[in-house]
Write a structure and sequence with these properties.
This protein is an alpha+beta fold. It has 6 helices and 5 strands.
């Protein structure tokens, strides 16, 4: 039997019942490196997904705890979209993907893992980034540590 080494998953497995909103905790903590917050703006912030779908999976999150896009102010909508643009530019420069999936899941039934705090997913994609592992064994391989990616994105963003 082949084994995949994924020690970062223990945090997810052991903290599935964590209390409170992880996004609210991250924005209030001011411990950006520990929480993988790569950028802050007036109304939103960008954070690496700790359990990514693909390498470079970033989420742009409204600082205010709101569940749906209809509850955003015009300033928040504009700010979040500017951060999405900034993060796509940073990811394009650092990781050189062939494309991106960008989207919002509103509500549990749409696939939102955190459905009470609005966030936009940015998932870099490469030609051939899908393989037999997810199909045969429900396993996804992420090729870069969050710490390494955080450092590279911060270096690019901070100039």
């Amino acid at each position: 039997m082949d084994k995949l080494w994924a020690p970062w998953r223990i945090t997810y497995v052991s903290n599935t019942k964590a209390k409170g909103c992880i996004f609210c905790k991250a924005v209030k903590a001011k411990r950006d490196k520990n929480n993988f917050v790569v950028f802050r703006s007036a109304y939103s912030f960008a954070i690496l997904n700790a359990f990514p779908y693909n390498n470079g999976h970033v989420m742009v999150v409204c600082k205010r705890h709101v569940a749906s896009i209809e509850n955003l102010t015009n300033c928040e909508i504009l700010d979040m979209n500017k951060v999405v643009k900034k993060m796509i530019s940073a990811l394009r420069a650092v990781l050189k993907p062939a494309g991106f999936n960008v989207g919002i899941n509103l509500g549990k039934v749409s696939g939102a893992g955190i459905d009470k705090h609005l966030h936009i997913h940015i998932v870099p994609r490469w030609m051939g980034d899908t393989n037999f592992m997810p199909v045969l064994s429900d396993t996804k391989i992420i090729s870069q540590s969050l710490g390494e990616l955080y450092k590279k994105l911060k270096k690019y963003i901070d100039g």
